[in-house]
Specification:
The protein is an alpha/beta fold. It has helices at about 15-25, 40-45, 80-90, 110-125; strands at about 5-10, 30-35, 70-75, 95-100. Strands 2-1-3-4 form a four-stranded mixed beta sheet. Helix 1 (about 15-25) links the parallel strand 1 (about 5-10) and strand 2 (about 30-35). Helix 1 (about 15-25) crosses helix 3. The chain is globular, with a radius of gyration of 14 Å. The N and C termini lie far apart (about 40 Å). InterPro entries: UCP014543 (IPR016621).
């Protein structure tokens, strides 16, 4: 799998453009995920060959909304991982919800991962 970053729920186009420009030197595939694809497995969206697209009748697709942006790093490890996170911080493009694609979460859809990250965020940052 080619190193990929999935960009989910970015409403601010200026911030998205700034983030993409900061990551351009890494030659990592950046893929903006549209709301109609939120029900697809994250592994499929990232290009994992073993994870297939799912067919979900439109009536069953969740209408839940995400409040925050989410960034998923897939196939990015070691020094490259550290450099990407450093570059995002340095560029001033904070993203509240960040995750790494794993064998455990590759079959989850975007909303499942979002809810898990939201739980973790609330646990570490109580209001």
């Amino acid at each position: 799998m080619k190193p990929t970053i999935l960009l989910i729920n970015f409403q601010n186009q200026q911030k998205l453009r700034k983030l993409k420009m900061a990551l351009l030197p890494f030659k990592i595939r950046l893929k903006t995920i549209e709301p109609q694809d939120y029900s697809q497995p994250i592994g499929y969206l990232a290009g994992v060959k073993e994870v297939s697209q799912v067919q979900i009748p439109s009536a069953l697709i969740s209408q839940e909304q995400m409040e925050k942006e989410m960034l998923i790093l897939a196939g990015i490890t070691g020094n490259l991982f550290d450099q990407v996170l450093y570059t995002l911080r340095k560029a001033g493009t904070p993203v509240d919800y960040k995750a790494v694609l794993t064998e455990h979460n590759q079959n989850w859809n975007c909303m499942q991962l979002y809810k898990e990250l939201e739980k973790e965020h609330n646990m570490y940052h109580p209001s």
